[in-house]
Amino acid sequence: MYFCLTPYTYAAEYAGDIVILDLEHDKYFNVTGDGAANLKRILTTNFVENKNTFIPATQDANIDIKAINDSIQFFTEKGFIQTSAVKNRCAINTPKQLGGLADYQWDTKAAFIAFKKARKGLIIKAFFMIISVWLTIKRRGIKGIVKRIEVIQERQIPRVTSTKKEQQELADAIDAAATLFPKKIYCLAWAATYVLMALKKGWHSSFVIGVQGMPFYAHAWAEIEGQVINDAPQVREYLSIMLRIPIFSEYKK
Questions:
Q1: Among the four 29, 41, 138, 210, which has the fewest Cβ within 10 Å?
Q2: Span 2-84: which CATH code?
Q3: What is the pTM of this model?
């Protein structure tokens, strides 16, 4: 048997540590040292259960059986892992480039200029979507956003190819709408708003969360066909991607 992450649990590796996003409780959990190494082994090893003890199906002298079983018990009790008949359902990603994002500050871009670039009707639509997204995050956290994206996926909206101009106009509309909203709109709400509106148009857009450790930093952004929208392109290079939804097969990397 194998172990895999439980539904709505995501993980990514950064500099040897593993950051877990637990959507059930809307919290991040950092695993370091031997705990991180053991979690990686647990998610990639085929086990045989013998008298409530999990033993690797293939003998491995490098595995401390007691330490692994202690870790299995710990991560199971936390609700992070569960048994599976097949190998781990998702990889634990590492950043494409080392170094992280030093002093990176995200904010809405030149919002007042955006008013001149986007159609008023689109700004109004973006404003009401921001309200909806803000309420979803407040009431249900990140899981609420993921569930909303899953609902749109189930509709199987036919794909529509978007132009760079159309993509930027939607970004400008959301920037402008965020200026009108009485609360500060952070990256999570901005990216969710963009992706939900883009998916409804039939664009291949994904909601992405990346992390780094030491110091811890998490950031959300929107992508279309594998390209970062209205954000620094290096976020997908220097951060470990722990969540991407929807996953379009041709834009996994």
A1: 138
A2: 3.90.930
A3: 0.90
